[in-house]
Amino acid sequence: YAQALWDYLRTWEWMSVxxxxxxxxxxxxxxxxxSSLLPVFVAWLRVFLVSRGVPVWAVIVxxxxxxxxxxxxxxxxxxxxxxxxxxxxxxxxxxxxxxxxSIALGFALKIVASVIQQKxxxxxxxxxxxxxxxxxxxxxxxxxxxxxxxxxxxxRGKVAVLVGGPDWPTSVLTGILxxxxxxxxxxxxxSMVLVVAFVLNGAYLTVRSQDPLSAFIYNMSVGFAxxxxxxxxxxxxxxxxxxxxxxxxxxx
Length: 252
Prior knowledge:
The protein is mainly α. 79% of the residues lie in helices and 0% in strands. It is globular.
């Protein structure tokens, strides 16, 4: 077996393998830095837009465009996008109007980004055999996820997977599995709860020292978001494993 493996490895184009490995490593580092540098970018963008006296409508458009772009970067979570709008908009609008606008914008961006990730990225990548192999579409657990998401209506399992799962991988996987986009958006809609929590946390970040109520809202909002996210993730795991255990003979 060892000799056969050695003979097989000798057939590889090692220069190509090494170059691919190097570029893969660079890509991973860049994507990791993108997530870490997001707060710095948001702070710079806020100062830039406010100091230039950009009109409110232009600020909203700018935040929306950048938000969609950020949603397309795998390691950046949706929370970063909601935080961005909540930090920037109060600088150019009435505070409470900015909070309401940030919630509406954040939810709209979540839905639009999910559609793009599913229909454009997921279904596009799903045409390639190697992508479907990486996604393990024929494994028992992936088939169980598909069965949970294919359930008609607004089921607890579907909501738990779509809300508790990471934004980019979950939406792209629904596209690879060719699931109904309208059903997926229906299951994604309860993410509004997380949008509200993260927007409140971002909006009250700069005013939390002004009065006890602001500090309370700031602290409670992030705790609530983390709690809801954890419950959704654990629930998603529960529902998927339940399908695996009860319907394994159908999935294999």
